[in-house]
Amino acid sequence: MDFDIPSYVMGKESCGGGGAPDFLEYIESDGSQYIDTGYVAQETTCLELIAAISSTQTTSYATPLGAAAASYTSELFIRAWKNGSPFIYAAWGNGRYKDLTSGFSAFGEPIEFRLDKDKVLYLRRSGSLTSSYFNGTASSYPTSPLCLFGINVAGNIEQQCAMKFYGLRIWENGQLVRHFLPAIAPSGVACVYELLSGAFLYNRGSGSFTAS
Asked: Is the pTM of this model over 0.70?
C-alpha cells in the first residue's frame, strides 16, 4: 500500500458493455444520499478513502464514512465537518480519537484519508501528508456495517456528508478485501461498484447522486 493517488481519481474509463459498470471520476452527494457498504470493520481493518468535502453541509456534523454502536459506545468513523467549519477527526474502537483539523482549509479538492491497522490516521492534500497516532486504548468495535456519506449508528444513518466520492479501499491484515469505485450501472444510475465482488451498491437515501 502507498499514498499515490490511484489512477481512478484521474479520469473516467469504461469496463465495456453487458452488465459491467462505467467507472466515473467521482459521484457527488448533496447530503441526502448514502451507501450501505455491507462491511463490518475488524480490529485489523485499514481504510483508505478519497473524497472532496463540500463547503456547504446540511447537518451540524458531517461524516464521510463511519459506523457506531448505540450512544457511540464503540465506533469507527472519519468526520470532516462540525458546526460550519472543517473538523478532521477520527475515532476507532472505544476511547481512541484523533483531531487533524489544524491548518485544514481545503474544500473541493480530493483528499486522502487513511486509517491504518496500526491505528495511525493519515491525511494528505495537495501533496502534504499529516499523520498522528491515536490516543487511548480500544476495547470494543462497532458491529454495524460502515456507511459511506454518513455514519451508521446501530442502524440509524446520521451526520450525512455532502461530498464527492472518488474511491474507498479496505484491507484486513494487509489483504485487500473491498474496493469501492464510483460508477454508472447498466441501468444508467449513478452508484458505487465493489470491484472484488462485482456488486452494485445503490443510494439508500433520498434523491440521487450526481455523476461526473
From this structure: yes
